[in-house]
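The instructor's notes for this session suggest beginning with a concrete chain rather than abstract definitions. Hand out the sequence below and ask the class to guess, before any prediction is shown, which regions might be ordered.
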Amino acid sequence: MRKRVKVRIINDGANGFFDRARERARQLDKNEELAPELTISFESATDMMRVLSPQRLRLLHVARTRRVPVSELANGLKRDTRAVTRDIDLLEQFGLIRSHYEVNPGHGKRRIVEPRAVKYQLVATV
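After discussion, reveal the predicted structure:
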């Protein structure tokens, strides 16, 4: 399994991005070790909530604990597999989860979803 990083989801836009970049540069100048992390920044809380709908947050919550096939995830969430697949595509596009295909003996292949982190930190400023 790949190494998991800390994932922060915030809505601080371009100013926050540049502030974080300056802080990381200062740390590097001081030869400090940087902890691996992934920060996903949205321009506004509205944009963030459009991507992180209640259904997608439930999906993240379940998928963060282990690798799980899409069909099992959909059944556990009591949702249509196609809707869950669309949500997975979007969350993967933003880097919140990973997925890959593996052989499903006797049934072709199946898509497996795996977490990027054990814990996701969601910070919204309104």
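Then share the key points. The first helix runs from residue 13 to 29. The chain has a mean pLDDT of 86.
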